[in-house]
Amino acid sequence: MKILRLTKNNQKEIIHQAIEVLAAGGLVIYPTETCYGIGADATSQAAIDKLLSYKTKRKDKALSIALTDKTMAAKYVEINKTAKNIYDNFLPGPITVVSRGKHKLAEGVESSMGTQGVRIPNYQLILDLLKEYKKPITATSANASYKKTPYSIADILDNTSKKQQALLDLAIDAGRLPKRKPSTVVDTTLDNIYILREGSMDFKSETVFLAQDLKGTENFVEKIFSKVQKQVGKKAIVFLLQGDLGAGKTHFTKYLAKKLKVKDMVVSPTFTLCREYKGHFGRKSILLKHIDSYRFYEASEIEALDPKDLFQAPNIVVVEWANKVKEYIDQYLQKAVVVKINIVVTGETSRRFEYEIE
Amino acid sequence: MKPVYILAIDTSCDDTSVAVLKNDRVLSNIVSSQLDIHREWGGVVPNLARREHEKMIDGCVKVAFKRSALKDMKKLTAIAVTYGPGLAPALQVGVTKAKDLAEELKLPLIAVNHMEGHTLSTFLKSKEGKNYAGMKKPKFPFMAVCVSGGHTEIIWVEKIGSYKLIGQTVDDAAGEAFDKVARMLELGYPGGPIISKLAETGDPQRYPLPRPMKDSHDYNFSFSGLKTACLYNTNDLREKLGKKFATIIPDYCASFQEAVVDSLLIKVQKAAKKLGPKMIVIGGGVSANNRLRSKFRASLKDLGIPVYAPSKKMCTDNAAMIAIAAYYKFLRGEIVKDRIHFQRDPSITIETLRSEEK
């Protein structure tokens, strides 16, 4: 491996040599604002294969790429609103943005889920190099598998075998880098299928209930439940809720739980996707299942909740962010009583409930 | 005494995790999201959901075992598994696998409560015996503060194995508030790391946000109100500032983070003053937040109470923490006797005892 010591005057020469190596499918160790990275042409299969044999045990990891700006990124990944916000305002910098890939990179770069991490390093030499090379290079850290994060060329040489070192072609040595944490990774792909203020549900004929405050919400729960209570224990009862963040979807569920004599505290199911509570109505024991599809990447992920079993009597099911999964779960709702509810925020405590019982 | 080797499985929510411990030392700890496990073990499947524990589990067990360098599965002393709380079908995968392994290898099976894992995650040591949290000797009784995407709890620990839930969120978890506010600011997922990153350059006093329930006479929390306050607040600011909105994001992140940390700290301090724990340990994904760590340490130092935080890898869900809880259970002789009837229980709390343990 050739080691080039970076000075004030040799940047052009270094860029020139690095590009030659990259174009020939070689591996280049380079400095960034976090740690030393290892670059291979992300569009060249030979280069990526070489990198993966250097990384040995890391074959099970996707590789992030470094490039110059949003325009260049748009060639390789789909940039949605969230990604745009980050590119426009916080890059270059130590953030890796994950987007859906466009499958234009060598195999082994994108994850097997088809997502791709992108970095725009806040390091002028590398930005200049990328601008001239016009193709993305890998931005994975230069350490061998599970060895420490490299802040100097010595960190790399001390922790790799002769065989691994033989695969390296060039190192750009900027001396010892300040110890900064690896980049922060954010996934923007959750925002692909819906946005924060998604539309409300469509009804054939809706009924409206106005609530001035939380007491009004409780009254609404009373009213709507009285219309379906005969079916408790016979059919699954499914409440499909739609409404903005903070509309009171969990509050609705809390009052429903109260009605069903649930003893445990009803808390948000966003993280666990589904929470279940034992309750009863009259002498009938029921299970209240509280589902939130907020974190689903796609509707079919509800399969992870065993929907055949889920939408059976005596279960009473509340689904938050129902629009995301409504069409998909239709197949499981044929025998259930379905109540569709839009919650519209009309004031700080007041809400308009639009509903339809199918 | 002969060393105890435990292989533990956690499939409580998103991640499939498997770890191998020698007593309280971590030999290996695999978490599926940190691995592109589909690539190594199954190839690419279209529309692959990220939570398909069934497809992950065998690969994770193999990798964890291989990295433990134990070589022979017969060296293991016991198999441990999270049986709750969590997502029922996900837990099921882990429980089934653990039962099969225990049967096949003729080993004892240990059932672990996921929250006990977070509570004891600061007890973990490296292969060389170094405590990751820098805790020399645990002192009892202590208080555990578990803060994640799904939980926000204060747990009183009289001794290992004896827990009391003294405070919890009444609505959203703290980690969920981070995710949802990140969504409002269009910063991607998960919200915690990116908000914390951008907050580094922000002014935490710039936007006054509520500290919900700060005056309530209990040790409970609420983050739903804070989320809603942020929603109205960011909508107004966006309208007022237009394109300049992005420039205030670092200040907003810092102000929001401060509100969460304060809300947690107010109740933790209150409980600490009243109950006088000998130490406080934190755990869960949000405990990786640097501001939370430093402010907790500084504020509780005044009360003479040391604060310990797990290494960042042990903050989020992982099986190493399940294995250490299992290790102490094994020493106490708490193994599953009736394996046939042993099953997952998605809605248990830290106080729940299995019928065999009562």
From TrEMBL, chain A:
Source organism of this protein record: Candidatus Magasanikbacteria bacterium RIFCSPHIGHO2_02_FULL_41_13
Protein keywords: ATP-binding, Cytoplasm, Nucleotide-binding, Nucleotidyltransferase, Transferase, tRNA processing
Enzyme Commission code(s) on record: 2.7.7.87
Record-given protein name: L-threonylcarbamoyladenylate synthase
Domain called YrdC-like: residue spans: 12-201
GO MF, one example: ATP binding
Protein's UniProt keywords contain Transcription regulation: no
Catalytic activity: L-threonine + hydrogencarbonate + ATP = L-threonylcarbamoyladenylate + diphosphate + H2O
Residues in the signal sequence: none
Domain of life: Bacteria
Family: Belongs to the SUA5 family.
GO CC list: cytoplasm
Coiled coil ranges: none
Subcellular location: Cytoplasm
InterPro entries: DHBP_synth_RibB-like_a/b_dom, P-loop_NTPase, Sua5-like_dom, T6A_TsaE, TC-AMP_synthase_SUA5
One annotated GO biological process: tRNA threonylcarbamoyladenosine modification
Pfam family, any one: Sua5_yciO_yrdC
Automatic annotation (TrEMBL), chain B:
Main subcellular location of this protein, as a coarse class: cytoplasm
Enzyme class: transferase
UniProt KW keywords: Acyltransferase, Cytoplasm, Iron, Metal-binding, Transferase, tRNA processing
Subcellular location: Cytoplasm
Cofactor note: Binds 1 Fe(2+) ion per subunit.
SUPFAM superfamilies in UniProt: Actin-like ATPase domain (SSF53067)
Names of the cofactor(s): Fe(2+)
Cellular component aspect of the GO annotation: cytoplasm
Residue numbers binding substrate: C146, V147, S148, G149, G150, D179, G192, N289
Enzyme Commission identifier(s): 2.3.1.234
InterPro entries with a match to the protein in the record: ATPase_NBD (IPR043129), Gcp-like_dom (IPR000905), KAE1/TsaD (IPR017861), TsaD (IPR022450)
One example of a Gene Ontology biological process annotation: tRNA threonylcarbamoyladenosine modification
Catalytic activity: L-threonylcarbamoyladenylate + adenosine(37) in tRNA = N(6)-L-threonylcarbamoyladenosine(37) in tRNA + AMP + H(+)
Binding site for Fe cation: H114, H118, D317
Domain Gcp-like: 26-323
Keyword Manganese appears in the UniProt entry: no
Keyword Metal-binding part of the UniProt annotation: yes
PANTHER family: TRNA N6-ADENOSINE THREONYLCARBAMOYLTRANSFERASE, TRNA N6-ADENOSINE THREONYLCARBAMOYLTRANSFERASE, MITOCHONDRIAL
Similarity comment: Belongs to the KAE1 / TsaD family.
HAMAP family from the UniProt entry: TsaD
Chain's role: Required for the formation of a threonylcarbamoyl group on adenosine at position 37 (t(6)A37) in tRNAs that read codons beginning with adenine. Is involved in the transfer of the threonylcarbamoyl moiety of threonylcarbamoyl-AMP (TC-AMP) to the N6 group of A37, together with TsaE and TsaB. TsaD likely plays a direct catalytic role in this reaction.
Entry protein name: tRNA N6-adenosine threonylcarbamoyltransferase
